[in-house]
C-alpha cells in the first residue's frame, strides 16, 4: 500500500504502554474537534470527537482532552496495541456550521512488539 | 469499512489533461466533501456538496469543480492538471448538519 506520512513526526511506544498524541489547533472559534486514524492505503477512520463545551471525552481505550485556553488537543490511547500503528490526525470545524474540516499535519504512531 | 467507495483506485495523467474522480456515499448520506491529501500531509478541504449544490469551498482554483447527483454520489473534476495536483483525493460523506464524516479509501492521482 501507499505510504502516508513519510515526513511526519513519529511517536514510538512499546506494546502495552499508553500513548499520547498532541495537536495544536488554529481557530479559537472552532467548536468541534475530531481525531482520525489513517492506515497505509486507507482513508481516515473516525476515532473520537469532542465539542468545545467539554474538556474530556472517553471512548473505548481512547480519551480526548481539549484545552481551549492554549488551543491544544490530545489523544490518549491506553494499552497500545500493534494494530494502533498508523498516522493520527486531529481536525477542527472552523465554521461552526456544516462539515468542513481543517486537518492538522498528523503524527505517525509506531508500536513496538 | 465506511460504505463510501471511490473510483478509480489509482490514476496516472500527464500535465494539461483533465481527470474525473468518482465517489459513492454511504447509504442515506446527503452531503459529500472532497479533500486533497499530499504525501506526508493532512487532508485539505476542496469543497462540499449538499443536495446537488456546492455548499462551501476551500482554497482551490476554479479548475477544481464538482457535481453531486440525485442519488448523492459525486464527481470531482480537475482541468489543466499540474504536477502539484499529484495527491490522494478523498471523499467523505455525512448527514447534513452532523459533523461526523465517513471517508472513502481515496484515489491516488499521479501527474507526470
What report would you give on this structure?
The complex is a heterodimer of chains A (113) and B (112). By secondary structure, chain A is mainly β. Chain A is built from no helices and 10 strands. In chain A, the strands form 2 sheets. In chain A, strands 1, 3, 4, 8, 9 and 10 form a 6-stranded mixed beta sheet that branches. In chain A, strands 2-7-6-5 form a 4-stranded antiparallel beta sheet, with no helix packed on it. The radius of gyration of chain A is 14 Å and the shape is globular. Chain A starts with 9 loop residues before the first strand and ends with a strand. Mean pLDDT of chain A is 89; it is low at 1-6. Chain B is an all-beta fold and 112 residues long. Chain B has no helices and 11 strands. In chain B, the strands form 2 sheets. In chain B, strands 2, 4, 5, 6, 9, 10 and 11 form a 7-stranded mixed beta sheet that branches. A 4-stranded antiparallel beta sheet of chain B has the order 1-3-8-7, with no helix packed on it. Chain B is globular, with a radius of gyration of 13 Å. The relative contact order of chain B is 0.34. The model of chain B has no long low-confidence stretch (mean pLDDT 93). At the A-B interface, β3, β4 and β9 of A face β4, β5, β9 and β10 of B.
Q: What features would you highlight for this structure?
A:
heterodimer; A: mainly beta; 0% helix; globular; B: 112 residues; mainly beta; seven-stranded mixed sheet
Radius of gyration of chain B: 13 Å
Helical run tally of chain A? 0
Shape of chain B: globular
The residue-averaged pLDDT of chain B reads 93
For the residues shown, what is the average pLDDT of chain A? 89
Instruction: Please bin the fraction of helical residues of chain A.
Output: under 10%
Q: Tally of extended strands of chain A?
A: 10
Largest interface, chains and sizes: A-B, 30 and 34 residues
How much of the sequence lies in strands of chain B comes to over 45%
Instruction: Calculate the terminal CA-CA distance of chain B, rounded to whole Å.
Output: 31 Å
Q: Quaternary state, please? A: heterodimer
Q: Helix share of residues of chain B?
A: under 10%
Profile the largest sheet of chain B.
7 strands, mixed
Which spans of chain B have pLDDT < 50 for at least 5 consecutive residues? none
Distance between the termini of chain A: 22 Å
Query: What structural category do the secondary elements of chain A indicate?
Result: mainly beta
Amino acid at each position: 500500500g501507499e505510504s502516508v506520512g513519510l515526513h511526519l513526526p513519529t511517536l514510538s511506544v512499546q506494546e502495552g504502554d499508553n500513548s499520547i498524541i498532541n495537536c495544536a489547533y488554529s481557530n479559537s472559534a472552532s467548536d468541534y474537534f475530531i481525531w482520525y486514524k489513517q492506515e497505509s492505503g486507507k482513508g481516515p477512520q473516525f476515532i473520537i470527537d469532542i465539542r468545545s463545551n467539554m474538556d474530556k471525552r472517553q471512548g473505548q481505550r481512547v480519551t480526548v482532552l481539549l484545552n481551549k485556553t492554549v488551543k491544544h488537543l490530545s489523544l490518549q490511547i491506553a494499552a497500545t496495541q500493534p494494530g494502533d500503528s498508523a498516522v493520527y490526525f486531529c481536525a477542527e470545524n472552523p465554521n461552526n456550521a456544516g462539515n468542513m474540516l481543517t486537518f492538522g499535519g498528523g503524527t505517525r504512531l509506531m508500536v513496538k512488539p | 469499512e465506511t460504505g463510501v467507495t471511490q473510483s478509480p483506485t489509482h490514476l496516472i495523467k500527464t500535465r494539461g489533461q483533465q481527470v474525473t474522480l468518482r465517489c459513492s456515499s454511504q447509504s442515506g448520506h446527503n452531503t459529500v466533501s472532497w479533500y486533497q491529501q499530499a504525501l506526508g500531509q493532512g487532508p485539505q478541504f476542496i469543497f462540499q456538496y449538499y443536495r446537488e449544490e456546492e455548499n462551501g469551498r476551500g482554497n482551490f482554483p476554479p479548475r477544481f469543480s464538482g457535481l453531486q447527483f440525485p442519488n448523492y454520489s459525486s464527481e470531482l473534476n480537475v482541468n489543466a492538471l499540474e504536477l502539484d495536483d499529484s495527491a490522494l483525493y478523498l471523499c467523505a460523506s455525512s448527514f447534513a448538519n452532523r459533523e461526523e464524516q465517513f471517508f472513502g479509501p481515496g484515489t491516488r492521482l499521479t501527474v507526470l
